[in-house]
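Extended Data, panel c. Modelled sequence:
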Amino acid sequence: MNGRGKRRWSILFLLTLMLGVLGIVTGPAVESQSNEPQYAEGEVLVKFKSGTTLAAAEVIAADLSIDGMREFRILSQMRQRPFLLMSSARRSTRELLAALQANSQVEAVSPNYRRRLQRLPNDPKFAKLWGLSKISAPAAWEKTVGSPGVVLAVLDTGVDYRHEDLAANMWRNPGEIPGNGIDDDGNGFDDDVYGYDFASDRFGKNDSDPMDIDHHGTHVAGTMAATGNNGIGVCGIAWNVRIMALKSFRPDMYIYDSDSIEAIEYVILMKRDYGVNLVAINASFGGGGENVLQKDAIAAAGSQGIAMVCAAGNDGADNDTTPFYPAGYDLPNIIAVAATDSNDQLASFSNYGATTVDMAAPGVGILSTVPTGKGLEAWLKSGGDVFDANALEFSGMTSSSGLARPIYDCGRGLSASYFPAGVNGNIALIERGDNTFKEKTINAQAAGAVAVAIFNNESGNFSGTLGSAGSWIPVVSLARADGLQIRSRGVHQVTLVNRPANYGIIDGTSMAAPHVSGALGLLAVQFPGDDLPKRISRLYSGADRLGSLENKMKTGARLNLARALSQSLILTITVSRQQASVWVVNKDFAEVYFSVEKDPGAVISGETYTVYRKTLSGSYESRKEIAAGEIQNGGYSFYDKYLDHAVSYTYVIQARNAQGEVIALSNEQSI
């Protein structure tokens, strides 16, 4: 864009900003359902046409019973016409708008909208949390950032409860005195201050310390609820709720069903008997093999209104044909989550399943908390520019201040011929492609390079690995645009930093699931009266339907936090099963009832509601379609007949608008 174009853009921006600040409407208003405008009742902002005097405006105001008027003097002077705020205690905003819009001397009029501060936290790494922007978290935070009264459980490798970005948000058991070795609250667990360790050794013994033995659980916890707006590191989805640590991985880095069941029981106990407002358990683990006891434990948690948010798995497999548990249990309180990338595509590693995976959330290149000092942070400084980088797995590290050396273009680093002699003792810049990161690095080390920066061969940055631990030099990745810019500058001095940190980037459905767990935390704060089915309905209904996810999961959608918090149509379903010998011997029937709740003021009409049913191994089939006019007293019921006695069935309701677009989806109910 040339300079003239830039100036034109700036002028248009300023005009738009001025009109927005004044609330002036120059055409039909379009209101977003997810950001409903709010205004001061009985007040309007009025711009009069050129040639209208203040005296004439005062006459019009008197005719409308205006009892308060304030002039925007500077604007009136600059535009040579009155700009006024008018208010009336006797006439509504709608009445004032209608009357003034009909007046030939009025050019524009609008309500006196009120606007909130745009809540973006001051955490310095917030800009790197692409997933939060993708799911519209900043807009959701205008409604709530969470509450200490809501607790999310992390069933994982433990949590670094001393971490700078997690300590303030750790749940603390008010009935326990730390470190006295006594079960002060009588719940059967000594010193369960932050939660508990259900797998302290290879035999699965318990102790009171749920400190992270890896980094996984701390990373999950940070995405869910790292402290926001504290000027440190990152922020979580629900950055003011509390985190309960349930360490259940043994030193061999496996979680055993017995340990996970104990942990789930602890959650049930603390909610049912001790009043802890536990909303969800995040379960970013899984594998093959169905376990009825584990399924029963999860179902028991569901009976207490606790969701189990499960990673769908990282095998790139179809869970419909290759079950993955616990995500694959057919339970209404399980939410199985796949992973998407920054382009809203299903991640290459993510499992999927049209009938066994519920929804998706960001899970590629996710930055979050890791145990103190066990993460890496990387960047490359070239001239006055500092470019974000990702450390490749097993990469060597620099000192805290980094390596200051000339950088040499080494093409794609495919063989010794790609490396100029000058790279010896300096930094190699290599383009991704044609061979592995490991091979590029081996070639660079053979040429004498002391560090490597690999830039992408497509837009954006990437994560990668050198395959295994070894005597590697520092190796980082760069976005394509950054690498091309550095290469265009020729041989020049740069500083490459790759050093220990308290934060790290990880891929996986393990990283997608905590986005959903955090969302449930915010929904519990915003709608404290909701039961779990209604909360799940808001989650599914507000998600963004994406073509890339169609037929890959039940909703075909990726989490949208803002829409979930402002969903205007909520569907919930209940199903009961009975024997029906009056119709066919040994056949059952289901009484299906669903409720329809519309927010006051929601503009929805002409919608249709479809009841779908599936068996455990089958796909959803339409059983009945109901028009909006058939809904009576906020609900509808019917009998689904001729069910096989020994077969389990699952039901769900979907609503579509007059254009055929999905606008709401209920919770699932199995019988």
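The first strand starts at residue 38 and ends at 48. This feature is highlighted in the accompanying rendering.
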